[in-house]
Amino acid sequence: MARHVVATVDQIPLDQRLLVQVNGREIGIFNVGGEYFAVGNRCPHEGASLCKGRIVGLVEATGPGDYQYSRRGELLRCPWHGWEFDLRTGRSWCEPDRTKVRSYDLKVEPGGALIEGELRAETFQVTIDKQYVVLEV
Amino acid sequence: MSTVELERPRASNYKLRVIDCDIHPAMTSWTEVHPYLERQWIEHLTVYGSHLRHAFSEALSHPRMSPDAARIDAYPEEGGPPGSSLELMKKQHLDPNGIEVGMLIPLRWNPGSQRNLDLGVALTRAMNTWQVERWVKQEPRLRASVLIAQEDTVASVAEIDARGGDPNFTQILILPKTDEPLGRRRYWPIYEAAVRNNLPITIHVGGTNGHPSTGGGWTSYYMEEHHSVAQTMQAVVASLVFEGVLERFPELRVVIMEGGLGWVPSLNARMDKHWARLRSEVPHVKKPPSEYVREQVWFSTQPMEEPATSAELIDLFDRIGWDRLLFSTDYPHWDFDDPRYAFRANLTKAQREQLLYENARKFYRLD
Ligand code: FES
């Protein structure tokens, strides 16, 4: 496990995503209402590029015609067969105990801490006054 | 979505060998067929448009899970619908998935279901030439299907005879939602022509015959309608058996494409049971129905049932016959099957190769 600086915070606007490659792995980083989550790009069902899917919320109903929509932006829907994955946990909505997308630890850290710390950033000139997304892979 | 690349991705170590029996090509614009369409019909389409047997003439009969029923990563960057870019098809599907041969199944415009039969006939001719010029000649891995205006038997036979000797075509495409069940005698000359030209008939989900999409009427939800493919295909198989088509044309080979699989053993068992008791009604059906199915009907794998255990899927394949299964992806549609992960079962290498490649190679006589 090593820590990688993969982006500056302002590269991933609110409710947007960024796909990065770290050690040959494709990882999507999602800004959900100001919180950041990282999941692998391979859908565990049949291998689609999951991070290209639509970001959706949770639709539930107590009966026909009675819809509630919640958790806006927290679910990622696979571009192929539409399995939904919870960005907070990586679990799939249809087989939560069996099927998960790989999720990664991610932190947002100020440039100052990074320059003094143990890290080297592969593609960035890290400066003190910015916030950075740091992935543990 | 932007991408930051920190390191080169690792090269894939797979070597797949696949024959994909179901790829859907699309047109960037309908003017692509104009060069192959008589002036009269170009003008007809400009003035009147095309007209199918349901409302909202060119719409699908039910909204799909995603627009164009497509994988949402299959839209070409340069515009146009999924399936319209050969470059993207190569890059996204043919190359990485080891497709050695891919069978084209064009669906849009639905020439077989046009109310104006002459327009339907003109469209099938044009779209058949279009498949060869726009796809097969540009990409040697692809093969065309003979589209026919299935409600016009005479014209269908003429088109089959016209394309029969052409190696660019591997099969005759029929949509199961016909005016009458496919076993009816009005369609028999089509089967005769298929046998005469040594081409299988492939019955791929689709068609708009004006009848409700399920036996129980029009559905409210796409998920409800999506299951109707299985009942439609059961009706087709039963019709081909009981009306006597498979008995009359023992050399006819039929592919049930995109109709699912799980229902096959139960249909066979039900047909055999009823035939044992009721066969005096259909004395022209000389063998147990399952024998006709076993000898003359093949099934494509997508959309496959995905049972919870590997053993259930293997049991299903045992019952249908491993040699009757043809692999298909349905690229670029949303329920696409990836050849690397499509079978949620522990298959041996030999079984996998048989399903992904060998069966189709033999079936389509590709040597
Ligand atoms: S590949 Fe993602 S849902 Fe099937």
Automatic annotation (TrEMBL), chain A:
InterPro entries named in the record: Rieske_2Fe-2S (IPR017941), Rieske_2Fe-2S_sf (IPR036922)
One Pfam assignment: Rieske
SUPFAM superfamilies assigned to the protein according to its UniProt record, in alphabetical order: ISP domain (SSF50022)
The Rieske domain, residue ranges: 3-115
One of the record's GO molecular function terms: 2 iron, 2 sulfur cluster binding
Signal peptide location: none
Keyword Repeat among UniProt keywords: no
Keywords on record: 2Fe-2S, Iron, Iron-sulfur, Metal-binding
Origin superkingdom: Bacteria
Protein name (Swiss-Prot/TrEMBL): Rieske (2Fe-2S) protein
Organism: Bradyrhizobium barranii subsp. barranii
Record lineage: Bacteria, Pseudomonadati, Pseudomonadota, Alphaproteobacteria, Hyphomicrobiales
Automatic annotation (TrEMBL), chain B:
InterPro entries: ACMSD, Amidohydro-rel, Metal_Hydrolase
Keywords: Lyase
Origin superkingdom: Bacteria
Single GO molecular function: hydrolase activity
Transmembrane portions of the chain: none
Keyword Lyase: yes
Gene3D superfamilies registered for this protein in UniProt: Metal-dependent hydrolases
One GO location term (cellular component): cytoplasm
Domain Amidohydrolase-related residue range list: 19-366
Cleaved signal peptide residues: none
Record flagged with keyword Lyase: yes
Short name of any one Pfam family annotated for the protein: Amidohydro_2
One Gene Ontology biological process: secondary metabolic process
Protein name: Amidohydrolase
Species in which this protein is naturally found: Bradyrhizobium barranii subsp. barranii
Source taxonomy: Bacteria, Pseudomonadati, Pseudomonadota, Alphaproteobacteria, Hyphomicrobiales
